[in-house]
Amino acid sequence: MKKGLFYYFKPDLIVDSLKDINVLDLINRGIKFIAVDLDNTLVPYLEEEIPKETYEWVEKVKSLGLEVYIFSNASLARVAKIGCMLGLSGKGKVFKPIIRNLRQELQKRGLTPTQGVLIGDQVFTDVLIGKIEGVFTILVKPSSRKDFLFTKINRFLEKLLRRYLHA
């Protein structure tokens, strides 16, 4: 089945925040591995303090037997620091959407793309790489208005894309 261009920019699910994700639905879909973006998904951009809601969500997901893995363009040090605080492993500097190493993380665990999900706050990085890799994609609203300059440009382009898709 041939997929149109816009398939790669349309998330499978859109939610306001991590707490709005029905984890049992993910388990029923066969999901075993959750790759999650760091900035403006797990924590507000460049913040060091982790919201209580994030701690609770991570603990709930882990208690249900799913692996949560940070998959971010943030620095290796930032991913390691936040990961340590949350008890998660992860990878930084993944250069989404250029380098497609999400599938490698799944393969290391003996999983197929249909057993993975990518959660993030950006269409042109998180949703795009998730769709390319063949995992279920969830788009969350950014947890902060602060963004990296390039991300601000992406958000403007995302608004244009949404208008076009809804026209």
Automatic annotation (TrEMBL):
Q: Which domain of life is it from?
A: Bacteria
What InterPro entries does this protein map onto?
HAD-like_sf, HAD_sf, PGPP1/Gep4
- Report the Gene3D superfamilies cross-referenced here: HAD superfamily/HAD-like
Molecular function (GO) terms for this protein are:
phosphatidylglycerophosphatase activity
Under what name is this protein listed?
Answer: YqeG family HAD IIIA-type phosphatase
